[in-house]
Amino acid sequence: MLAASVRVSHHLREFDSHFAFGLTSGLTSSAILLFPPIWPRNPTSNFPSISHRSQPRRVSFFCSIVPSTSSGEIPVLSDCFGSREDDREVSVAGGIVALGKFDALHVGHRELAIQASMVGSPFLLSFVGIAEVLGWEPRAPIVAQCDRKRVLSSWAPYCQNSAPSEYQIQFSSVRYLTPREFVEKLSKELRVCGVVAGESYRFGYKAAGDAAELVKLCEEYGISAYIIKSVMDRNQKVLNSANSKERGQVSSTRVRHALSIGDMKYVSELLGRRHRLILMEKGLEGFSNTNSRVSAPRSCLLNLSPKEGFYNNCFLCTTDENLIPCRVAIDSTHVHIEMDDIGTIHLVGTQDCVNIEFGDGV
């Protein structure tokens, strides 16, 4: 029988957590007990108000950019959110860390944060530099790095009014750790009080450890462990996935697939919010305070865009999170933004970003 400090909930909606050092999925132990948590299920809406005001609105955002040297590359962002392992101003000591690969920040990832917030100060602990170490081809992120803090702040109503923080560890520093060594690092070096992971979570070198072993090791090291089920995709859409553990759970793969087919309603359901596309403003073409149509080359994109096509139900986001209706056309080289009333906004700055949200309609 597991120690009483190990808690899991079947009332938590299931989420995707097939993330580990080996980035593979696994099975959960039948010995893990389930206990129902309680938290408010009707937080305030994630969707900001739509503004039709006539006074100028400044669209000014918060990225620090190192421009790309190639027109076809995703620009490199300097650090503008979260904490690195060597950032001593932020510490996970005494906190509850959710374990995973939080690239999409989808509803499954949010469930991890919810569980963590129920028992302590919530953190998302993930690894950076995985692609470089494993030799993967670089690809655009689903959430722009400079937009992650905003997304996490929007989770506060779900998380006991406490937005989770991010703590990132260089993958190269943990790649060869055994499951025991990794838990020892959490206990002795990071001094966390508890961990939250999904039923399919695997960790340690070559993904040697599963959720059951995580529970066992955490008990040895005096850390509480909370294992929760996967959040399933209510649409139950079938993916042609090479992942043998694909069971229909919400995943970043599903988000990327939904974006690739331009199904923005599906994207919103998976993310629990509208997808926000962020472009470097300095790349805008035809920009002026009187021009209702502007364009930007795709090299200005800081995250993954929907497939090529026309999107009618879109919104330009202002600094105070009001939304200005617009239309977006995406082709092979550019993103085009068209507004009905250019007088409602004022785009400013030389290194700011333009933020576009995609509604459900096309």
TrEMBL record:
Pfam families found in the cross-reference section: FAD_syn (PF06574)
Q: Name one GO cellular component term.
A: chloroplast
Recorded hits in SUPFAM superfamilies, A to Z, give: Nucleotidylyl transferase
Q: In which pathway does it act?
A: Cofactor biosynthesis; FAD biosynthesis; FAD from FMN: step 1/1
Q: Which UniProt keywords apply?
A: ATP-binding, FAD, Flavoprotein, FMN, Nucleotide-binding, Nucleotidyltransferase, Transferase
Q: Name one GO molecular function term.
A: FMN adenylyltransferase activity
In this chain the FAD synthetase domain maps to 174-239
Specify the enzyme's EC class, one word.
transferase
One GO BP on record is: FAD biosynthetic process
Q: What is this protein called?
A: FAD synthase
According to its UniProt entry, this protein's organism is Cucumis melo (Muskmelon)
Gene expressing this chain:
LOC103488775
